[in-house]
Batch of 4 targets.
Target 1
Amino acid sequence: MKRHAATLILVALAGWPGAVALAMDPEVASMVDRLQTRWAEIRYALPEERREAAYAALTDEADRALAAHPEAAELHAWAGIVRSTQAGATGGLGALSLVKQARADLEKALSLDPLALDGAAYTSLGALYYQVPGWPLSFGDDARAERYLRRGLAVSPDGLDSLYFWGDYLHEQGHDDQARRALRQALEAAPRPGRERADAGRRAEIRALLDELDH
């Protein structure tokens, strides 16, 4: 797996501005909020040795939510996010199966509503494509990653997560000066109400990557 495979950051999409949109069905909105909140708790507060089981339980919860609301793009997006993060905690061949399922979740989200959650599915797919191995092990593809990440940026040009993953991708491609600019812009992103844990965790990851780039 690539550099991030042990901790697939998709992880990472810990809650987008306007994630619970006004037009969202109230029951779906409640489910999305639960998935986001629990995801951030697991990623940023739970001991590492307990995360794999916790992500697996959250994946089951996401699947139950999808069974009740199969046309909710937001739930498909979060199912993909949770499943891909579970893959990072699981590792090995089991991770490859999970990321394929995550890709299907995210593609379904885009087919239903590409703007849901401020384009989270675009950025999540982009992150998957540059983090997983390429053929013959998996579907990793840097060119596709860039296309999806750019689409995510088009929807959320000032988003904490869209800029973080763009900066991380640029670093992976050896464009560290551009990566620094994107990451510093990410640190200026507006706080996300109700997403304090996710924001703090993401900003810590950004600062850690900037520190890596500067040494």
Note: The radius of gyration is 16 Å.
Target 2
Amino acid sequence: MADTAIRPPARAAMSRERGRRTGDRVFLGLSAASASLILVILAGVAIFLIIQGIPAITADWPATKDLASIQNPAGVPWPSFWAYVGPLLWGSIWSGLIAIVLGAPVAIGIALFTSHYAPRRIAGALGYIVDLLAAVPSIVFGLWGIVVIRPLLLPLSDFLNHYFGWIPLFAGPVSTTGSTMLAGGVVLAVMILPIVTSITREIFLQTPRLHEEAALALGATRWEMIRLAVLPYARSGMVSATLLGVGRAIGETMAFALIVSPSIRYSVQILTDGYNSQTIAANIVNNWGVATEIQRSALIGTGLMLFVISFGVNFLARYIISASGPDAKRRSRTPRKAGKPA
């Protein structure tokens, strides 16, 4: 009788356990399949870029008619693919640096204001508005840059050139149209605000409440509390958000293509319109429609270089996060055991 009373509950428990194990296996399979799918897609993109770009990368540019027709600023054919892609890589990186220098401090300031200073209602509304910027199409930002930003920056460009023209950054003849790297950088800085702001805001909100209260209890002002408790905790997250913003700025296409005058050259000047460094993405957009087959191969080859640069930015972000994150600090503070070599 006792065995008969015990068996049904035990059987039900075993059934529930089998159900949980089946659910775990299904979830594990779906997760592994999703991770594998991402790797397959990434590998597929890389293989496509390599196969399509190799003909132009390995070609003899001066001897290939369609490639020789791509003139450099000196009016002569490019000697090789690497000479062609070098200024484009520089332009992509340079525009991303300008955007992050202008946009990252503003984004971090907005994140601090919404997380530690603003009343809850204002913080929620401001955060919602900033997040909405991510939904604005790139072409709209480009039109806004043409109509508003370019004329607005002309007086500032004259001022910077007049008083700081001895600095190479502000040297050269000032543009009369506003189609400068400065205008493009300002628009890109606005475009990366949602990414950097949203990530840093969430990181700031994850700061342990006890750390903040301890700093305030010791007599620190709110800014001192942020400087001593919040910013050190969020350092790695701020770096990762900034690098994600760089990745967005480097890969931006339409807005930059509409605003900045195209020119394939090495240049650090940000106030001229004839000596700008074109980006890879904008160069592809401007030339794809009129390119021949081998020229499209060259454009795809430059896209491969942009792909590699994006990988480099992500790897750098990962390295900085691992070197300055909480785990690294914990390892550095763990005492070594006696008898173990350093």
Note: Confidence is low (pLDDT under 50) at residues 335-342.
Target 3
Amino acid sequence: MKLFYQQVLSFFLVIVITLSIIGFSMMNFITRQAYDNTFSQLEGYADSMGHIALKKDPLTGRYQQIKPSFLDEFQQVMQVQNVTIRVFNEDNEQIYPESSLTPYSLREDVWQELKSGKSFRIQNDYLNNQPKLSTKEPYSSIMVPWFDGSQLKAVVWLGAKVSSTETTIKQAQQNSIVALLASVSAGMIISLVIVWFNLSRIKKLSKATKKVGEGDFSVRIDHKDNDEIDDLASDFNKMVESLKLSDEEIKRQETRRNQFMADVAHEMRTPLTTINGILEGLRYDAIPVDSKDKSIQLMQSETNRLIRLVNENLDYEKIRNNQIKLFKTKFDGTLVLENIVEQLSGNAKKKNNTLKLLSTEPVFIYADHDRFTQIIFNITQNAIQFTENGNVELTIYRVDKATRVKIKDTGIGMSNEQKRFIFERFYKADPSRNNVGTGESGLGLAIVYSLVNQHHGQIEVDSQANKGTTFTLTFFDLKSKKEVDSE
């Protein structure tokens, strides 16, 4: 069953059950109220009759009005109200209306209760073996004893036809039924509107979900934050935004992976082609004897290049999966930077760059010596690669409970967009240099970032396009590092 019909059926059942309970209660109340009104009216008549009938003659001391003439007059008045009267004397003999037959008397059990001062209310004297006021049709009646002090003087029995009361009840019931039917109709119309409104919002969610399933992450659902469906719409929008970012990231990673594979293929093809060509030449003695040593050196250089490409990938995977162990010690960081400057000076000269270390005094640092060297080497080599006819400067100095290293260049720099991704795997800030045969895989800065994080250090990048880049690395002291880990 569709949700629409389920909701409508639910609303319909709730409305019908609720209104049925209300209607049943109203019917009972109307019936009870109608009979209560009848009894109250009859009891009012009985009290009025009693006050008049029990007046004594001041001379004789007899009751003047308990006699047929008075009761006839009262009966004529009561006929207008469709009320019938019977009166019994203190001996349980019917004295009104008079009959030529044997006088009617009340049952003994009823009479005893009347003598004790109890009044009777009979809703329908044709039910439950009640005393009958008439043998022709049912009456709603009361029996009230009249006392003079503690002495019973008479009992009056007043009755109104049940049909009169039931007519009033039926009219009230008909009005109630009409009101209930109108309420059911109005409730169903309102329910249909509510169900349609809510289902239309759910359908929007359903359509939007299908679009997302088809790969459209631009879909959004308008909402007003009024209820749970609006909360669901808000969560849906957040989910789609997250999926969009994830999809974009997957596409970026896939693009970079494809580019990386193309770069690796290119980087490996060149040395492999060179090595294969030299081996062919050596095999067929096509290389002069005086050139063999140079050819072997070239093969060794190209082999080392291939090994570096493979090692960079293996190294990154180990670092990323926390499969390396750091052996931290305290050592002279200035000396490490001096060695790196010496190693890369040749590369800097090839690009007409000036590579220099601005620090001369020993500055001690707490880190893994080999990995620290790898970090500074990768960043410095990257700075040289993207700088021409410029400067690359290294600085190391102490700050509060830490050692800081800055590597500044005057190269091509980066935009804010490029800065967001430079530490991601396979990313290259300058794609135009992908195929220049440098052997760069796009893993250098990703390795740097992972190693700095494993040192619990910090790395910051400040760069502007065409103005250069500055990397700032902070390595905390042993005591400070423990404090950071405990926080």
Note: The chain has three domains: 3-168, 228-316, 325-486.
Target 4
Amino acid sequence: MHIVEMRMMRWMHGHIKSDKINNEVIQDKVGVTYAVDKMRDVKLRGSGRLKKYWEEVIIQDMPQLHITEDMTLDRTV
């Protein structure tokens, strides 16, 4: 991921690998952060609430429908 990103940054700034310019210099000139660092920040920050599992949704809906766990085991009810 890092290699492809650096190739794009060099291309954006008009340089090629044989120009022998350090990655840090290219990154400073382009003025962007690495995608890997950005993805890590987003992952640590999180996005919204956690997804509920199917079982959690069923357990929450049971009191609203006036159903007990014993009733779910008996198919005749």
Note: The CA atoms of residues 22 and 28 lie 10 Å apart.
